[in-house]
Amino acid sequence: MTPSAEGCAVPGGRRPPAPGPALERLLTPFRRVLPRPSLLLPGRLGPRLTGVPVRLVPEPASRPAPDREPDRRRRSWLLAGSAAVGWAICGLGLFALYLHMSRTVSVNSDGASNALQAWAMLHGNPLLRGWELSDVSFYTTELPQYLLIELARGLTPDVVHVGAAMTYTFVLLLAARLAKGGARGRQGLVRAALAAGIILAPQAAEVPVLMLSPDHVGSTVPVLLMWLLIDRAGRRWYVPAASGLLLALAVVADQIILITGVAPVVLVAAARAYQKLVRERARLRSAWFELSLGAAGLAGAAVGERALVLIQHSGGFLVWPVSERLVSLDNFPHNLLQTYQGILLLFGADFMGQPAGLAAGLALVHLVGLGLAVWAVCAAVRRYVGSELVIQLMVVATLASLASFALGPNAGQPLSSREFAAVLPFAAALAGRTLAPRLSRARMLPALGVVLGIYAIGAVSLAAQPPAAAQNQALAGWLAAHRLTYGLAGYWIANSVTLDSGGAVHLCPLKGNEQTARPEWWEIQLSWYNPELHDANFVVLPSNGIGPPPGPGPLPPTVPGVLGAFGQPARVYYLAQYTVLVWNKNLLTVMQ
């Protein structure tokens, strides 16, 4: 017996013939049940090949694999539905919190003017014919929102509070979703929570800027929506078209979109296209998305500007031009100081000048959120070249908003930080997007959880304060009780009283000097001053005669100016904070 080349002994020393194709096909179904070759080796390695009975068992018929696609699809829909429900629950809770916070501040004439404009749109004047607005129209952002609220609630000061709470909730949720990006599980939750935590709890000084009258905060919503579309939809053909449409609608509402939305899209798209076409020498087709996105940004700006002109030529509202003057060298240090104080205010960290106590302590804790935002912006600038498109957009928009305020003419006081309020959600989303992995690796999340808890305590304590009455609610009630229903007053009294009374008392804005008084062409409808339609027989002035806070114009009405324009009144009422002068004639005829 001679061992074979395989190491197995075969009788007669001859190699067994190789199986033919037919035999091979016959044995294929039984391969899986044959013993392993190592078990057939002779001696200590296994039993002899000869005499080993082999039982051939046919392979069971293979069953078709069950179709698991419906199950996977069901689980996907279930997860998406659960996420949507979770976001909705968070949104409702935040709306309730912010509604109570907004109600702690009195509604003034700025918010009242927008509420009156939405009321006019609701009652048959969709183009706001005959209206002269401020330098911001809010025509495609807050005004439709106010219209829907008034449809349910009527004309009340609470319309402003409800609208502000809705807007700030949208801003927080959009910033959190943008920060989350495509991350899932724990990492996605950390990203969203980090962004939301920075925005979560405005301090009392922030509420008039962020949660009251429309003041550029709502203008961040279309920009955040555009970035979210770019981030989640990717390089699809409809993304540039939808982005251009969002920008066009937003430009109609607020010219600040040219800085926060249009300029970043155009600059970033141009830089990325240059990188591909010039430095990398790629084909033109490879940069189609960047070129299309930049063109869409320019087209959106042009269409928005043209839409404003068409509305005006159709008899619609008129918007005052925005000042394009840059700051002088002498005033530049003042602007830098106001920018610094405005940043502290927006992020709730304005502890300067506050008495030592709970409010100052909470402001100091908010320095954590501000520090994270600054860290995120600096890190994004350092890694700009290799960053995602949406991160580049966020960092450019944040820096552009800050620079426009520091170099512009509107840095008058800390409350002017509303001019660059977009920095808060933009920097918060950037922090969540870029810092979450680092903070997780550094095991800083428990400490940040403690900070977030302190933020929440501060927000709840502020929301628990009693609501404030509208700024001139008592005056509106007194005038209605004395049947004084149509008159004149300074801007900060006029539209506020009209809203506070639900339209039962109407005051037209007035301005003047020491010699005369005349209409204030700011947030008004021209027909209000038509003597053939209305009979105004009284003027309301503050008890000190000059009317702080100052109106949007430099000439608030004064007692000498009112007497010089209309003569001696028939009756004078001295109230706690107001002086009411009544004539027995229609004052509108005198001003013509």
Structure overview:
The protein has 592 residues and is of the alpha+beta class. Among the domains are: 94 residues, no CATH class; 118 residues, no CATH class. The protein is built from 21 helices and ten strands. The chain has a six-stranded mixed sheet with strand order 6-5-4-8-10-9. It has a two-stranded antiparallel sheet with strand order 1-2. It has a two-stranded antiparallel ribbon with strand order 3-7. Helix 3 crosses helix 19, helix 5 runs parallel beside helix 16 and helix 9 runs parallel beside helix 11. The N terminus is likely disordered.
Please report the number of helical segments. Answer: 21
The Cα radius of gyration reads 35 Å
Helical percentage: 40-55%
Mean pLDDT: 86
Strands of the widest sheet, in order across it, are: 6-5-4-8-10-9
CA-CA gap between termini: 132 Å
Strand content: 5-15%
Shape: globular
Structural class: alpha+beta
Q: Characterize the main sheet.
A: 6 strands, mixed
> How many strands?
10
Give unreliable regions as ranges. 1-13, 32-52, 546-552
